[in-house]
Write a structure and sequence with these properties.
The chain has about 425 residues and is mainly α. It has one domain. The protein has helices at about 1-70, 75-110, 120-130, 130-145, 150-175, 180-195, 200-205, 220-290, 295-320, 325-330, 335-350, 355-370, 375-385, 390-400, 400-425. It is globular and about 60 Å long.
């Protein structure tokens, strides 16, 4: 129990730190550049989700298998796995960077950037993609270091990276007046600072994973991608949902509606970070017990994790319901009354999903931790693509903005019900 509390607490703190990357940008951009800046940033967030999701796919996928190999003392397989994971990181990063250099403006237009916000959206996207190697490598290192019995260092690296982003955001946007470029430059430097904080792990003697001379093995790569795929889907689906919501809301309420959704999306980043932090905290414990064949401990830790995420989600919704107007005010420097009218009921309806979303995230991670990736993939695809997209279009056509907000909790509820059916055999 002590180890469970330690791992989950440290992981939650660190995950919250990562979520503050975009949250800090949103706060300072809303203060410095107003509603247009907030709308431009909101259009770019799906791309950040995709980059971060790729990093988590490689990091969590690789680190899950790393925990199993490590518990079985298979040192050679550990090093081969780590090296292959880094090679995959280089491959994905190259694609992102090239996309940023040559296609960022087209992407900004596709995402909905009009004449008012196109330039800001293009700038943010271009540099976000150029910094993608830093984001991806940081996610990988954080996962491996955490699973290498250094959760404190992983947490500190994430927190210092996040605090650096907050400080640099302020300096670049206000004293230096660098505008939207200042926001993305601060965000891009933060994972670099985070990686520098983890240097002691490599320089010390505790590090049990190393780069080795090995061939790129397709089977190892597929294992990593398969185990990490739910993490990618979770982030990718958030991006796709944002794109869908942005398109529908733009038609219903214009740029102010998109700015209002930006408030909700940023709070969602924080709440999902809480659930993801709990999930990532228990993952190395579950994988280690699974590798040792201790099914009783696997079930015990899993029950603790589900109970924790449900309790946290109830507190989250209560706070959001009570303080929805105050939350909106933080991002509404222009005192736009229409923004209040859209965002306040949106927060209260959208976050009805809290308990269901938390349960779905923790369940997907637990299934992956015991190398049962297929049901995890199914749950992730249902909540991220298969249900949410058609429900958003259907409910928005029936009930307008109310339908948009309700699409998310209904999706999470339906996915959670299926999850209960899937997990039933494992609960015995």
């Amino acid at each position: 129990m002590h180890e469970y509390i330690r791992c989950t607490t440290l992981s939650v703190l660190g995950s919250l730190g990562v979520s503050c990357y975009i949250l800090a940008d949103t706060f300072f951009v809303s203060k410095g550049l107003g509603t247009n800046g907030l709308a431009a940033l909101n259009l770019a967030i799906p791309v950040y989700n995709f980059i971060h999701g790729t990093g988590l796919m490689l990091g969590i996928g690789g680190a899950t298998k790393f925990s199993i190999y490590r518990s079985q003392k298979q040192k050679e397989q550990v090093n081969q796995l780590y090296t292959n994971t880094l090679c995959l990181a280089v491959l994905f990063s190259t694609v992102f960077v090239l996309f940023g250099l040559f296609f960022s403006r087209h992407l900004a237009q596709i995402l909905g950037g009009d004449d008012n916000i196109l330039e800001m959206t293009d700038t943010y996207l271009k540099w976000l993609l150029i910094f993608s190697p830093a984001f991806i490598l940081n996610d990988i290192f954080l996962c491996f270091v955490r699973n290498d019995e250094s959760p404190q260092l992983s947490m500190m690296a994430m927190l210092i990276g996040s605090f650096s982003n907050i400080i640099l955001d302020y300096i670049f946007i206000f004293p230096l007046r660098m505008g939207i470029f200042g926001a993305v430059f601060a965000t891009g430097l933060s994972p670099v600072i985070s990686m520098l904080m983890m240097l002691p792990h490599w320089l010390g003697k505790r590090n049990t994973f190393h780069v080795t001379r090995t061939k790129i093995r397709a089977c190892v790569a597929m294992q990593t991608l398969s185990l990490g795929f739910p993490s990618l889907i979770a982030q990718l689906s958030s991006g796709i949902v944002m794109i869908t919501f942005n398109a529908i809301i733009l038609d219903l309420k214009g740029s102010t509606g998109i700015a209002a959704y930006g408030v909700i999306a940023n709070i969602s980043l924080v709440t999902v970070a809480l659930y993801t932090g709990i999930a990532q905290g228990v993952q190395p414990l579950v994988s280690s017990f699974y590798g040792k064949g201790d099914s009783r401990q696997v079930r015990t830790v899993s029950k603790h994790a589900i109970a924790t995420v449900l309790a946290v989600s109830c507190v989250v919704y209560l706070l959001i319901f009570i303080y929805s107007r105050q939350i909106t005010a933080v991002f509404n420097s222009e005192k736009n009354m229409e923004l209040y009218e859209i965002a306040v009921p949106g927060l209260r309806l959208y976050f009805l999903s809290s308990a269901f979303a938390g349960y779905n995230i923790i369940l997907a991670t637990l299934l992956t931790s015991i190398e049962n990736a297929l049901p995890s993939h199914i749950l992730s695809l249902l909540r991220g693509l298969i249900l949410i997209i058609p429900l958003t279009f259907l409910l928005s056509s029936l009930w307008g903005m109310t339908g948009v907000w309700l699409a998310y909790p209904i999706t999470e509820l339906l996915t959670a019900l299926l999850g209960l059916i899937i997990v039933h055999p494992y609960a015995r």
